[in-house]
Amino acid sequence: MKLGLAIDLDTCVGCHACATACKQWNTSGTIGPLTDENPYGKDPDGAWLNRIRTYEVDASPHSKTVNMPLSCMHCEDAACVTVCPTGASYKRTEDGIVLIDQDRCMGCNLCAWACPYGAREIDPGSGTMKKCTLCVDRIYDQNLPEDERQPACVITCPTKSRVFGDYDDPESDVSKLNRERGGKQLMPELGYNPVNTYLPPRNPAQRPQGGRMLGKVKQIVNRIIKR
Amino acid sequence: MHPAFSVLIFTVTAGAGYGLLGWLSANELLVMFAMTAAQKITVGIIAMVLISIGLSASTWHLTNPKNAWRAFSRFRTSWLSREMVFALALYPIAGLYAASLAWEWGGLTLWASLSLILSLVIVFVTSMIYASLKTIRQWHTPLVPTLYLLFAALSGGLAFALLLAWQGHETSSLQDFLLLLGLITASVKIGYFIWFRLPSSSTIQTATGFSQHKVGLLDAGHSAPSFLNKEFMFQVEQSKLVRMRWLMFMAAFIAPGLLLTGDGVFGLLAAWLIMMAGLLVERWLFFAEARHVVRLLHGHQQV
Amino acid sequence: MPNASELPQFEDHAKQEHKYTTCYMCACRCGIKVTLEDDKIRFIQGNPNHPVNKGVLCAKGNSGIMKQLSPAKLNQPLLRKPGSERGAAEFEEISWDRALDILTERLAKIRATDPKQLAYFTGRDQMQALTGLWASQFGTINWAAHGGFCSVNMAAAGLYTMGHAFWEFGDPDWDNTKYFMMFGVAEDHASNPIKLGLKKLKERGAKFVAVNPVRTGYQAIADEWLAIKPGTDGIFAMAMIHVLLRDGQIDDEFLIRYTNAPQLVVNTPGQVGDGLLWRDSEGQTQVYDQLTDGFVPANAIDVAPALLGDYNTPDGTPVRTAFSLLYDKYMDAQYSPEEAAKECGIDAETIERMALEMAHVAFQESITVDVEWTDWAGRKQSQFIGRPVSMHAMRGISAHSNGFQTCRALHILQALLGTIDCPGGHLAKPPFPKHIVPPIKPAKGNAPNTPLESAPLGFPTCPEDLVIDEAGQARRIDKAYSWDAPVAAHGLMHMVISNAVAGDPYPIDTLMLFMANMAWNSSMNTAETMDMLRAKDEQGNYKIPFIVTCDAFNSETVAFSDLVLPDTTYLERYDTISMLDRPISEPDAACDSIRSPVIAPDRDVRSWQEVMVEVGSRLKFPAFTNEAGERKYTGYKDFIVNFERAPGVGFLAGWRGENGDQHLRGAPNPKQWEAYEANECFFEHKLDLNQRYFRHANLDYLSLAKDAAWVGSTDQIVIELYSETMQRFRLAGQGLYDGPMPTEERHKERLTTYFDPLPFYYRPLEQQPEDTAEYPFFAVNQRPMFMYHSWDSQNAWLRQIMSQNYLYMQRERALELGIEDFAWAWLESRSGKIRVQVKHMEGVNADTVWTWNAIGKQAGAWGLSEDANEAKQGFLMNHLINELLPARTSAERMTNSDPITGQAAWYDLKVKIYPAAAGEEGSWPQFAPLKPLPGLKMSPRQQGYSSHKNVNLKRTWTDVLGNK
Ligand SMILES: Nc1nc2c(c(=O)[nH]1)N[C@H]1C(S)=C(S)[C@@H](COP(=O)(O)OP(=O)(O)OC[C@H]3O[C@@H](n4cnc5c(=O)[nH]c(N)nc54)[C@H](O)[C@@H]3O)O[C@H]1N2
Ligand SMILES: Nc1nc2c(c(=O)[nH]1)N[C@H]1C(S)=C(S)[C@@H](COP(=O)(O)OP(=O)(O)OC[C@H]3O[C@@H](n4cnc5c(=O)[nH]c(N)nc54)[C@H](O)[C@@H]3O)O[C@H]1N2
Ligand code: SF4
Ligand code: SF4
Ligand code: SF4
Ligand code: SF4
Ligand code: SF4
Ligand SMILES: [Mo]
After folding, report:
1. Which residues line ligand 2 (CB under 6 A)?
2. Ligand 7: does its nearest atom lie under 6 Å from the Cβ of C474?
3. Domain C162-431+719-723, what fold?
4. How far apart are CA B51 and CA B187, in angstroms?
5. Pocket, ligand 6, Cβ cutoff 6 A
């Protein structure tokens, strides 16, 4: 299995719901707690596993605003794993999920340096590295109702711009979307082979316009129309 | 990259230590200087002290040091793990080397060879921690291990010369060699700075997937600096970088070079201290000028 | 599947329990499922069965845990320390008994003497059914909720035109619409439904056009973004109307059957009665029947009314069809795309294309729903014809002083395209549509110890309905329903403090605020408002003698209160979202819901609803006591279940009747609450397919609506393109009305100018031509999707997303002015200046600057440290917005509001901007930091929440050593 997300840039409105859902779920999840520093003071900051950035693409007047959520891509060639000296970081063979064993991490930051996507953050409380778990503690928790065995960010996304599934299965939603919408990997040149893909904004079609019937109003409006 | 002071201290001090040990071991094999056992042991201890200071400094930047011992476990893939393993392995070897010197156990050639090889390997492995990162183009080059090895040889060599002079040896030929080595190192460093300017294949376009268009960051999704900002967005003015480069060349090469043309222990001591300061600046620049691709996600056009 | 044995048991579900309730991190009111564990919240997730959010949750809803943990939560009732100054935040903690005694004693005195001395105003609440009832039982006309400064323009324009509205009273038909145009919406109340809906549109390939000076959020995913100049949507809409009329692209069947377009209007300019609908002796409006060539009542069936035409009635009165007036008006060259383009910044070609694209979808891509339904006249129809073009608009339209007329223009556009309440169009949500207008008149007077005769707020249709005294002066403290703002259907909350302090029209004794941050982000002119709250008369008494605030958190307003009553959080209280208030219905279902506490408060707090019932009982309001004068309800829950507004009509519509088997209407059911809880805290009555469209003329629906008491009769709701109500007021302004008329020139002028029965475009009131040169930029705000007004800066997660706001402006314009990216600059309006940090962007109208709303905070408020970014770098635009228009004479205190509805004109602001001097950094003005409240917890330096000890996923040694 090759589990991951497909993220639809055509419909993401940048609402941050997936970011806070992720924070909420995971602070009590296997990677938690997710500590915040100065939560009520100057420059509040904390560990997040998913952050939303907004870009402006192209120059005026053709420019476009694009919201781009970024979390771990669960790369196939994940250097964050190979560089890790303690073995805390690992990629599960079963499904490709990249995880961090909190009891092993020494907080050397090397994996964060190795990650091109800014997906890893040190938790100021535990001093250990944190990252997206693909909600491993939801998707495999047999005690959750079946339809809830999905990542927290996916369940919550109000525009359904996040789709979770198995890229190894050509019939999965993610594989189909990736094919049909021309999904893109970010920074492919680095060779990490990220699993998550981004579905680019669609190009709107030209629309037909109502035929012009110059001067016709006066003729048509007093048609016999029964009330 | 944010230059963590502990890492600067680590690479510079331990680098000099490994260099010094390397020179000592090389001397064992080539007998360039006829040192007494006590002299060798003294030099060796000083090398190991430098190494140990460096290594302990390297743990300061760990945010969860209680797990540092686990860093030995991923020798198979992790350069950092390899560094730990080799660094640890050096201690018994160096100890056996010292013991054979002290109690004339024999096997000096073996221990010295191993010390020399390990010193070189450790410096190489340390450099590979950085050079292996594809995310930081300024580090991802064979020039980085080359420079690490050269700087270790240079700073260790100068320390060696200093200690030899202090022990009463005639060191002018070594000083001449070090001048040459300095020239080579400086040239490689200059070459590195020139190479440095080549554009990287990663741009804000590849980072966002909009390959055809101008892309700019409107919002990072958090208004105060995050871990990523603090770690990767380190930013100093270009003019400061230029000044630091000059300072680096002055301190690491020119001033020690001038001092090396003279003689006397104090001259060498001054040369070595200035060079070490210069190397700290060099390492600071090594970090400060390294631009991680995460910057692209934060709106930088290139790295 | 991975081997289950490799994974630990992630969490102990046996220890967990699930409770359902309704989110109130904002007014969208999504259904939530809360997982609890050891009395701590493990997880808040969307309820997939809930009609509003269908399982999804927004950024705020997902941060409910941090609201519950907020250090700004109030703990106990507070009384301003005797001798301390208002605003200094010096309080003593008092007991609830004492607090309620103080309050009841004061209120009893007011009620027994002059009840209007109590001004009771509520902010972003959803409790208007209760607070409105309470106020009328108290007997004060001085009650309103926040609608007047929020979006009354939208509500009123909708209710006075089509019987429902954009706001919360309707939705686009997300499932069927093929073309969607959205005006001035950043987030809106239907936060999650809009997002779910936009996704549906985009999946179907429907076109989404966003009209907005700023391109973020929703506009970012629009297929086309029109960067309109603020305040000019009216002329844009009217130019599209011009194009449709010019090209004959109109739905004449719709106009004839469902609107007053064919009705005859008296055409006697300059005479009494001009512009009113011509009526027969029975008072019935008339149309001209082309079949019989004669006048017939407008509601006659099987007649063929003429849309265009000028006639003379048998008594010789010249009349014209309303449509003729409309046609002539918008065919005028001033509404041509070319003229409009000059004003609104959208080029003529685009305006024309927009109109014709919509026309194409409406008329060439129409859809049908094949189901038999009964029209208003009892005739069977075999299908609903849908014109799948829909629109939605909110505060980008409403927060301008021309918003009412602009919004009406949008409704006219919809009507011409025939897309009102049809498949694919804009759909009403039960209990809407209502008859135009809802037959509730605002209460006019009050008497000691007597409930009001009607509700404090209502819908005037003529000058007789105004709440003015014999001299024509306002009776209400906010001057709603006066000549200043005759159709102020939601009051003018933004004027209360200013008017009360000025004693204009009179001083009051007590100001009671619930859930409103009036000392800060909800007031215009914030710094001066703070001074007003502190203002004293010559004797040294406060001009507003007593201020009571009910808040759950330490807002800026708390400091300005004499008595502070700490509320519960939304997870701690009993509550209802009633159909008597603002509905959570969906177009195809009537819905309401409850809040049931999921967690017990850890502080000495009470919900305001309980306090209302308690005080109402103590003051012996008839509705809260029995004949013997004894308390009728034990608490709010009891009240919700048992109170009946009319026989069978209560706060909740589901599971009524003694056995709980009646819906919408029925006797109180003692087990109603439990029935709601068993149904995940909501009730949903799905309409049958034949009841879902054309509800203004659908007998199948109207019969149901009448039974449910949503409407008073099953008569057709005739859409009013032509507003006779407006004309009545205009005639009063012209001195041609047979009834109350204004005496002051300024009022005559306003009525004559703005009360046009057909929408027209005018520049926002404060945008005087001479200001345009001096203040070249429009300045507007947007709601951030992850923050609700001022409340979420206390939220440790949400404030990490944004603790500082910037002033955004177009890059090139900024550079022209020498303002670099991230530079500090001065922003100045006619009322003052503030210092802001500028951020460049591309996606903004070049003449517009904007910022996120309500991020700036006063130092020390909201449980934040004094150096918090919100206080030091964040800023409020409110400082620059004046509650009064520039006065032409010193006697004039005219509200900066829509002249028709009194809607606060937040977005009319014009500004100039220039670089700050070197070293001038940080936001300005700065206010003295508020002192910490007694008993408030210190904020932690570090916080890592978890509801249980986290179960770590462990990697085995064999894996560590053995794996590549
Ligand atoms: N997350 C969140 N949700 C909220 C709230 C909140 O604070 N946070 N507040 C709630 C409340 S009380 C309300 S009233 C609603 C308001 O919801 P919205 O209607 O979304 O209100 P605003 O954020 O004021 O958005 C106004 C939009 O109109 C644009 N605009 C300004 N002037 C003009 C104009 O003249 N023409 C056009 N076409 N556009 C213009 C602005 O750029 C902005 O995008 O949201 C509710 N929902
Ligand atoms: N510049 C500018 N100003 C604006 C606007 C704008 O667009 N631009 N928008 C305007 C609009 S549309 C609106 S609706 C207003 C919003 O105006 P308000 O409703 O006054 O603003 P809020 O900030 O929501 O403040 C409400 C208060 O409710 C409190 N509160 C939160 N939860 C609870 C609770 O459970 N119980 C109690 N008792 N109190 C609670 C909060 O602590 C806060 O003090 O702002 C207006 N102000
Ligand atoms: S929740 Fe969905 S729409 Fe919102 S930011 Fe995340 S991906 Fe985008
Ligand atoms: S995104 Fe980063 S953390 Fe995730 S697998 Fe790839 S390299 Fe590792
Ligand atoms: S920070 Fe932790 S997970 Fe990352 S490389 Fe270091 S030890 Fe491994
Ligand atoms: S999959 Fe889970 S951990 Fe990853 S971003 Fe989504 S919510 Fe966060
Ligand atoms: S939109 Fe968000 S905050 Fe508002 S009720 Fe729904 S989930 Fe709660
Ligand atoms: Mo509002």
Report:
1. C 123-124, 146, 149-150, 514-517, 521-522, 550-553, 555, 557, 567, 569-570, 608, 781, 789-791, 853-854, 877-878, 906
2. no
3. Dimethylsulfoxide Reductase; domain 2 (3.40.228)
4. 27
5. A 22, 25-26, 49-50, 71, 132-135, 151-153
In this complex, the residue of A42, A99, A204 whose CB is nearest that of residue C867 is A42
Q: Is C832 exposed, middle or buried (0-12, 13-18, 19+ CB in 10 A)?
A: middle
How does pLDDT run across C781-839, given as a tens digit for each residue?
Answer: 999 999 999 999 999 999 999 999 999 999 999 999 999 999 999 999 999 999 999 99
Nearest Cα residue in chain C from A144: C13
Tokens of C405: 């007329």
What is the CA(C184)–ligand 1 centre distance, in A?
Answer: 6
pTM > 0.95: yes or no: yes
Instruction: Establish if A90 touches chain C: CB-CB under 8 angstroms.
Output: yes
**Residues C761-791: tens digit of each pLDDT:** 999 998 877 777 899 999 999 999 999 999 9
| CATH topology (fold) of A3-226 | Alpha-Beta Plaits (3.30.70)
Output the tens digit of pLDDT for each of chain B's 303 residues. Answer: 999 999 999 999 999 999 999 999 999 999 999 999 999 999 999 999 999 999 999 999 999 999 999 999 999 999 999 999 999 999 999 999 999 999 988 889 999 999 999 999 999 999 999 999 999 999 999 999 999 999 999 999 999 999 999 999 999 999 999 999 999 999 999 999 999 888 889 999 999 999 999 999 999 999 999 999 999 999 999 999 999 999 999 999 999 999 999 888 999 999 999 999 999 999 999 999 999 999 999 999 999
Angstrom distances, CA of residue A207 to CA of A213, C202, C353, C698, C842? 18, 15, 9, 33, 26
Return the higher-pLDDT residue of A225 and C686.
C686
> Does the beta carbon of C802 lie under 8 angstroms from any beta carbon of chain B?
yes
Tell me if B221 and A19 make a contact (CB, 8 A cut-off): yes
Hey, which CATH number is domain C768-915, 2.40.40.20, 3.30.1160.10, 3.10.310.70, 2.50.20.10? 2.40.40.20
C842 chain-B contacts, CB cut-off 8 A = 216
In angstroms, the separation between the Cα of residue C101 and the nearest Cα of chain A is 35
Query: What is the whole-number distance in angstroms between the Cα of residue A136 and the centre of ligand 6?
Result: 9
Q: How far is the CA of A29 from the centre of ligand 2 (A)?
A: 33
List, for residues A101-146, the tens digit of each pLDDT value: 999 999 999 999 999 999 999 999 999 999 999 999 999 999 999 9
- Residue B248 structure tokens: 């680096």
Residue C124: the pLDDT is: 85
Q: Which ligand 2 atom is the nearest neighbour of the CA of C782?
A: 7
Q: Which one-letter amino acid corresponds to residue C397?
A: I
Q: Verify whether the Cβ–Cβ distance C869 to B224 is below 8 Å.
A: yes
Strand ranges, E, within C570-659: 575-577, 589-595, 644-646, 649-650
The pLDDT > 70 percentage for chain A reads 95
Distance in angstroms (rounded) separating the CA atoms of residues C666 and C675? 15
**CATH code of B166's domain:** 1.20.1630.10
Domain ranges of chain A: 3-226
Q: Is residue B51 part of a domain?
A: yes
Does the beta carbon of C57 sit less than 6 angstroms from any atom of ligand 7? yes
Measure the CA dihedral B26/B31/B36/B38, to 10°: 10
Which of the other chains make 3 or more beta carbon contacts under 8 angstroms with chain B? A, C
Tokens standing for residue C883: 């509650």
Q: Please tell me the distance in Å from B290's CA to the nearest CA on chain A.
A: 11
Our CA-based measurement puts residue A188 at a distance from the nearest CA of chain C, in whole angstroms, of 23
CA distance C899 to C726: 12
The predicted complex's ipTM stands at: 0.96
Judged by CB atoms closer than 8 Å, whether chains meet at A23 and C62 is answered as: yes
Rounded CA separation B46/B240 (Å): 35
Does residue B104 belong to any structural domain of this protein?
yes
**Topology at the third CATH level for domain C78-144+446-566:** Rossmann fold (3.40.50)
Quick check: C962 contacting B, CB < 8 Å? Answer: no
Does any domain span residue B264?
A: yes
How far is residue A141 from each of residues A173, C12, C48, C95, C259, measured CA to CA in Å?
A: 21, 11, 19, 47, 57
CB contact under 8 A, C803 and B76: no
